[in-house]
């Protein structure tokens, strides 16, 4: 019991530290945005718009190839499946053909889904959710076979946990899945101890490509 409390306190302290870093980053971003606006205006005058559009088109055209990440899952003794292979991190504006459903990483939309304990009752765009995973979020997903009581209990848990989000994914094979960047596992229900273990390890865990990045000010639907 004492060990569980210490573990929970350590996770809370880690999340609070990440939140402070996120707030500091947002302040710096606002300052840089104001300064950068002058540069952007100048760039537009000399043809910057053409360059930006060209880069965007190139990224969109390469989305399908970049998204088909070579690799496969390897299941550990703890039941967590780890992706062994390359996971792209390019920003793309078109649909992405991910090798697994739900995806655990890869090229993604420039906008992330809000993941500050956000629960979505409708399916969300995979490319936005993957961006949330890049920021260190855990994504709880379920299909129509999941028990409603488990869905409700998991939603309550997510709402209390920063750097998490939840949504239905009808295309997934298992009733309930937990996903982080490069990692995924099946759980039997809300009371499965593997839920807390996965949250403990992967919410802002070592797998996070961009630790401390925002889980707010993204998309809400």
Write the layout of secondary structure elements.
Blueprint: H1 2-45, H2 48-61, H3 63-67, E1 71-75, E2 81-85, E3 116-119, H4 126-134, E4 138-142, H5 148-159, E5 164-168, E6 176-180, E7 183-186, H6 193-202
Parallel strand pairs: 3-5, 4-5
Antiparallel strand pairs: 1-2, 2-7, 4-6, 6-7
Question: What can you see in these coordinates?
Answer:
Strand 6 (176-180) and strand 7 form a beta hairpin. With 221 residues, the chain is α/β, with parallel strands linked by helices. The chain contains six helices and seven strands. The protein has one domain (1-221). It has a seven-stranded mixed beta sheet with strand order 1-2-7-6-4-5-3. The protein has helices at residues 2-45, 48-61, 63-67, 126-134, 148-159, 193-202; strands at residues 71-75, 81-85, 116-119, 138-142, 164-168, 176-180, 183-186. Residues 38-67 have low confidence and may be disordered. InterPro entries: DUF3105. Keywords: Membrane, Transmembrane, Transmembrane helix. This is Membrane protein.
């Amino acid at each position: 019991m004492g060990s569980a409390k210490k573990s929970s306190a350590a996770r809370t302290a880690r999340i609070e530290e990440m939140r402070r870093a996120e707030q500091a980053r947002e302040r710096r971003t606002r300052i840089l945005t104001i300064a950068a606006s002058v540069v952007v205006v100048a760039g537009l005058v000399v043809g910057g718009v053409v360059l930006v559009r060209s880069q965007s088109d190139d990224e969109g055209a390469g989305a399908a190839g970049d998204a088909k990440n070579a690799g496969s899952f390897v299941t550990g003794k703890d039941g967590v499946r780890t992706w062994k292979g390359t996971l792209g991190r390019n920003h793309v504006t078109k649909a992405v053909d991910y090798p697994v459903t739900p995806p655990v990483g890869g090229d993604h939309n420039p906008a992330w889904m809000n993941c500050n304990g956000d629960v979505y009752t409708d399916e969300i765009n995979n490319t936005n959710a993957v961006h949330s995973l890049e920021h260190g979020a855990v994504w709880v997903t379920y299909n129509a076979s999941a028990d409603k009581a488990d869905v409700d209990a998991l939603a309550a848990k997510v709402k209390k946990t920063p750097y998490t989000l939840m949504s239905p994914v009808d295309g997934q094979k298992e009733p309930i899945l937990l996903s982080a960047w490069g990692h995924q596992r099946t759980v039997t229900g809300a009371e499965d101890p593997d839920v807390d273990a996965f949250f403990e390890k992967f919410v802002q865990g070592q797998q996070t490509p961009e630790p401390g990045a925002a889980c707010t000010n993204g998309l809400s639907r």
